[in-house]
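Ticket #4471: complex job returned nothing on first submit. Input attached below:
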Amino acid sequence: MSLLELHDVSMIYGSVKALQGIDLTVEKGEWLALMGPSGSGKTTLMNIIGCMDKASTGSIVLDGVDFTDVTAGNLTMLRRDKIGLVFQQFHLIPYLTAVENLMVAQYYHSMPDEQEALLALERVGLKERARHLPSQLSGGEQQRVCIARALINYPMLILADEPTGNLDETNAKLVLEFFQQLHREGHTIIMVTHDPKVAELAERCIVLEHGRIANRKDRRIVCREEEVS
Amino acid sequence: MFWEMLKGALVRQSRKMFMVALTIALGVSLTTAMLNVMLDVGDKVNRELKAYGANITVIPRAASVLRDVYGIEASSGKTGQYLQEADVGKLKTIFWANNIVAFSPLLETKATVGSDDITVVGTWFNRQLELPTGEVVATGIKELKSWWTVEGNWINDADIKGAMVGSTLARKLNLRIGDSVEVALPGGVQRETLTVQGIFNSGGAEDDQIFVTLPFVQQGLNLPGKIGKIEVSAITTPENELARKAAHDPKSLSLKEWETWYCTAYVSSIAYQIEEAVGDSRAKPVRQVAESEGTILQKTQLLMLLITGLSLAGSALGISNLLMANIMERSREFGLLKALGATDRDVLLLTLTEIMTTGLFGGIAGYFLGLGFAQIIGHNVFGTAVAINAMVIPWVIISVILITLVGSLPAMRMLLSLRPAAVLHGR
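Support reply: We reran it on our side without changes. The output follows.
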């Protein structure tokens, strides 16, 4: 059974069709890259998969749970239990330290465990920076805290929205290496990116255009085409 | 974790939260001040309104008929009906004794000075009266007619040859302080010489009269221990339908109504109890004075309630604006919490705890600030301290909760409608 199945998903804002008839299946342990120009519907699709928005039509099944018609409260529970989110702009709580930012995710999931949070930071190479505020961390370090936070509750699916978009080359490389490691460990990753080189790291790449999936080619072909264009 | 988040949010936004606390403190301070003044203002305003003079007149029962039918004043001596001076102290034995702030017996007679007919009134000036309970109270016209402006001195009650002359009469007779005046009482053969101790201006009919000690008139008229009437100034509750019904006929009241009326300081209720205490008397409320006092008190209290309400509404508006700005500024933070799995209830709980904690500090500061304001109002308006009333505290707590919650409502609505997908992507 696939981890994620989307069937005929559409999202309409007033007269704007942000997504139209999206059919998509993601297997467990797969790394999928989502590409496309601005306004093509990548973020909208990520929000729907990440249980932060409800689709106007269509069905979505995550880990065997159909959340097409669930309430907002149940969507929150699904998101909390099954999804790990990594944002382009990091989004850390500014008045909490790195370890406390991880513990917030634990607190809303089950209960905070400082030792476990410290281990998660150690895993992303930030144990020494655990007591620093986000403002005392570099962009790369903040993004690694974000990744640690996304992983802290053992999610089934990691959604990363342009995780290297705000990073310099060195930090971007560090973060991508970490995603590769997660993939090797069997995590399922869906990553939005504009960068064909980043997409090339994924197993599969789909391109969205005007709210539709433009192609479903092998990642190398897609990425090469994107690179040429 | 909840407390770490709360602490972090409060410390990080200490300036903004200080503004919220200050807004709450200002609203609460006005509420505290107004409620304290309002609860104490009844006595204070009533004492100020003593300047309106007596609001109850006690006369002999039989004389009241003559006054009602023929217009003959009880204290003039023409009715031949008198009260006992010994009964005056009984006024302070009734249920509402503490509401009776001043009283004075009067015995009035016509007399001649030279060729002029004048009115001489015997009364108590500043009498230390021992009550049947053993308590001593100071009473007399010095207390009762506190608005009189007196040139010279008030008479000592032991000074039987002293007199206070009304300003109009003093001008007419060309009398000054220290002058002697010969007074012939009716039926009296010899003339009595009095010394002018003071000249007063009452702004009323008394300005044409001479006030002397009560024994002087009693001896002159050969009426020892007799008085014509008693003027009483009492603190009363504004009249309502029940009081008006009772004033018309107390017997028309049901038992429950009667109990309510009897145990409320209506002027009619106090008058009724005076009649019970002073034998063979009729206590008549001076309606204009009693009703004016009640109306002024009611209006003063209503004004204070309005100020309290408006200050609370103003605070709620201020808090509302500050919190809306705060939530807008922190929308990404709350969006993130929701994205991480916080329910609407979790986010509301965190935010409301932040606000209520701020409200607690603001409320405490406002309460003490308000006590200060109350004293400033007390000293500036009434020339005396305002009593601190513990009853205000629960009202202050309720108002803090109320203005904080009402002020938070728009921000809470905004918080509930906040969608993580929108705010985290800058929409």
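The first strand of chain A starts at residue 4 and ends at 13. Closing as resolved unless it happens again.
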